[in-house]
Each structure stands twice: as structure tokens, then as C-alpha cells.
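Quiz preparation item.
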């Protein structure tokens, strides 16, 4: 089944129930309810925790900035993992029973695809602070993204690898939409630069054993491997398999996007990722003043042992955007009024650098950094050494809406 067929199936499945929804009346000037759908349990709960901590920290540190008499309430729900039916049901409950004015969060693209038709029929703005599937904005005009797309970070990585002398690449990704989008983006950038893809493989999303798949890579003898798995524990498991199979000694260089070496997982990886090059939108090692301020607030709230990664910052920025909507409208807005503000929202001082929403696609425009894993003050860090400024989602530029 193709990704586009899956999108249509999600939309059809949600259509009958969603048509029962009436659009919400303008929000009251008392409590703005924001429905958070994330993964709070199961083996990938660390991803949901990053999102939750970013959202909650912004609310706690900026509640004082809300208009007089206006409060924000986060109504949190656990999708338990990449389970679209659960995400769909939670979204339905949040908009019908809890009467939320916004939906936000979401780790997984399959869950985001299931939520989009609900947001569309209920006319509730939905902000993805992680789910990266490229097609989601085209499912509803009430969607916006403060995270990234895999094309946004994967294409620059492919171009970089080709420009730096790599000729023969192998692509190994997780077998779901974001993995394939990451692989396709790298492939496009790499082959446009003159490189050749000599093979590809897809890991099961649930409970993968990376060793037999990476053994195929070793046997193929590429000079570079594009390795993509979801951020979190699987990233550490994949790097362990890479190390155990001796791929570095076999002179197979690994490159990826930020998902493979999220800042919160680096302390668990030993020295294996030292020197690894990735493309990404955020690093805790960045010296931008806004990032230093964010880290100070994070460490004050959560301590020094819990490390924020790109999902935490994307969620911080997503809540910043919703707070701007509330402040500009003094807490009284319709969904269409909110989206009119969101489509033109920008922040020149995000912890990750300048960001804005593309009014034509409702995707984020942001810097993409090429980073190297280095030792900094006795710890591993993703050190940014090259900046590609103001990157839009290239997939939509290559596939204009009809």
C-alpha cells in the first residue's frame, strides 16, 4: 500500500464520525484548553516525554505573559505508540468531550495522519511538534508544523555526502512513512550530486533486530551508509549493532539525520558515534543566546540529567506559537482566526535559530545544520559546523499542490 493510499484510507475512515462534529464557538476568555496527544507509555515513551517537557516548560515559564484572566490548560492523552486508531479516538474525544481549542504534540506520522481528518471536520487547529510526514498539511487547512520534514533534513545530508567524496551509498531505514521519506530524500540529494545507491533495506518498526540487516550492508561494501531509525532507544540499539558488526573498521561511514543521535540518547552510546555526521535543526551544544536561555530554564525545572533534544525544542516553539495566537486575540478566537495568525507566525530567536511558518504550506522554514559528534567538556555533543539557512520543505517544492 502506498503512503498516498494510506492517507486516503485514514481520511475515509475518519470522515463519517468527524462529520458529526460542529466547529467550536470562539474560545472563552477564561481557560484555553489545548489537547496534547503523545506517547507516554511503552518502549518509546522517552519520545513523548521530550514533547511533554517542552510543552509544559513553555507554559510554566510564560503563563505570566497571557492576557489578564486567561489561563491555559493542557489536556494530555497517551496514544501508547504508533497506533493510529488510538490517536484518532483520542482526537475525537478531545474535540467533542473536552472541547479543546487546539490539538498539539504527536510523535508518530501514522498517528498524525489519523488526526488530520478529525481536525479538519471539527475545525480545530492541529500543530505537529514531531510527526514529520510530508503530506499532512494537504489533508486539512487546520494543520501546521513546528517540527520538520524528513525531506527538509534528508536532502541536505545526501547533497553533503556526495559533495564530500562519497560515491557508493547504501540506504537502511525503518519501514514506515518517515523512514521511507528520509531514505528517498537522501537518495535524491546523493544521486543528484553524482553518487550511486548500491542497495537498500527496511527494518521492522516494532522490535527490530538490526544485526542481520546491517550485515547485508557490510557485505555490500558501500563507502557510506545512510542509517535512519526513530529517535529514542532504537537509535542507541542501531548504533550498537553498527559497532558490534565492525562497520567502522570495514570503512563504512555512517551518516544520518538528527534522529540517529538525539542529544538525550548520546550519553547512552559510548564513543561509537564520535565523528558521525548528521543533518539536523537543533543541538544542545549550540551557543545561540536563545538556546542558552532555554537550557537554563530546562535545567532549573528538570535538572542536569534529563537532556532536551529536538523534540523538546520543537514543542517549546509550538506552544510559543499558540501563546502568540492567544495573546494577539486576548483569548477570543475562532479556528480560522487562529490559523490566519499561525500561517504568518515567526520567531527570529528560537533556541534553534530563526523560524517561520510558510503561509503557502503551513510547514516550518528553518536552518538546517550539518553537525559532527564531538567530545565537549567530557560529554558527546552534536557540534554544528555548517548552516543551510531558511530551508523550506523541498518535497512540496518538487510536488506542487494541484
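Solution:
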Amino acid at each position: 500500500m502506498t503512503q498516498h493510499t494510506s492517507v486516503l484510507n485514514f481520511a475515509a475512515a475518519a470522515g463519517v464520525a468527524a462529520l458529526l462534529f460542529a466547529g467550536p464557538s470562539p474560545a472563552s476568555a477564561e481557560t484555553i484548553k489545548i489537547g496534547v496527544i503523545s506517547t507516554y507509555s511503552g518502549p518509546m515513551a522517552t519520545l513523548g516525554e521530550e514533547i511533554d517537557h517542552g510543552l509544559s516548560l513553555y507554559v510554566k515559564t510564560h503563563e505570566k505573559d497571557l492576557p489578564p484572566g486567561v489561563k491555559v490548560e493542557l489536556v494530555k492523552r497517551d496514544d501508547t505508540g504508533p497506533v493510529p486508531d488510538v490517536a484518532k479516538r483520542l482526537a475525537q474525544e478531545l474535540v467533542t468531550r473536552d472541547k479543546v481549542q487546539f490539538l498539539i504534540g504527536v510523535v508518530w506520522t501514522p498517528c498524525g495522519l489519523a488526526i488530520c481528518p478529525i481536525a479538519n471536520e471539527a475545525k480545530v487547529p492541529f500543530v505537529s511538534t514531531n510527526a514529520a510526514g510530508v503530506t499532512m498539511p494537504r489533508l486539512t487547512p487546520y494543520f501546521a508544523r513546528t517540527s520538520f520534514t524528513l525531506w527538509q533534513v534528508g536532502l541536505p545530508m545526501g547533497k553533503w555526502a556526495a559533495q564530500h567524496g562519497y560515491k557508493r551509498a547504501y540506504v537502511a531505514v525503518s519501514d514506515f512513512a518517515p523512514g521511507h521519506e528520509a531514505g528517498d530524500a537522501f537518495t535524491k540529494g546523493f544521486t543528484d550530486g553524482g553518487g550511486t545507491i548500491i542497495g537498500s533495506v527496511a527494518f521492522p518498526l516494532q522490535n527490530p533486530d538490526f544485526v542481520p540487516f546491517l550485515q547485508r550492508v557490510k557485505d555490500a561494501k558501500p563507502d557510506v551508509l545512510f542509517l535512519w531509525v526513530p529517535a529514542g532507544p532504537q537509535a542507541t540499539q542501531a548504533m550498537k549493532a553498527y559497532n558490534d558488526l565492525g562497520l567502522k573498521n570495514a570503512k563504512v561511514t555512517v551518516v544520518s539525520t538528527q534522529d540517529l543521535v538525539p542529544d538525550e540518547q548520546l550519553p547512552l552510546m559510548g564513543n561509537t558515534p564520535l565523528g558521525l555526521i548528521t543533518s539536523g535543526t537543533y543541538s544542545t551544544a549550540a551557543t545561540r543566546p536563545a538556546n542558552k536561555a532555554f537550557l537554563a530554564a530546562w535545567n532549573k525545572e528538570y535538572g542536569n540529567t534529563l537532556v532536551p533534544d529536538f523534540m523538546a525544542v520543537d514543542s517549546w516553539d509550538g506552544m510559543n506559537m499558540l501563546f502568540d495566537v492567544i495573546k494577539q486575540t486576548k483569548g477570543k478566537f475562532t479556528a480560522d482566526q487562529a490559523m490566519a495568525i499561525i500561517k504568518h507566525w515567526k520567531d527570529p530567536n528560537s533556541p534553534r535559530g530563526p523560524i517561520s511558518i510558510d503561509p503557502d504550506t503551513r510547514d516550518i522554514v528553518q536552518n538546517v545544520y550539518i553537525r559532527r559528534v564531538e567530545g565537549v567538556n567530557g560529554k558527546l555533543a552534536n557540534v554544528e559546523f555548517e548552516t543551510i539557512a531558511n530551508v523550506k520543505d523541498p518535497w512540496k517544492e518538487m510536488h506542487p499542490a494541484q
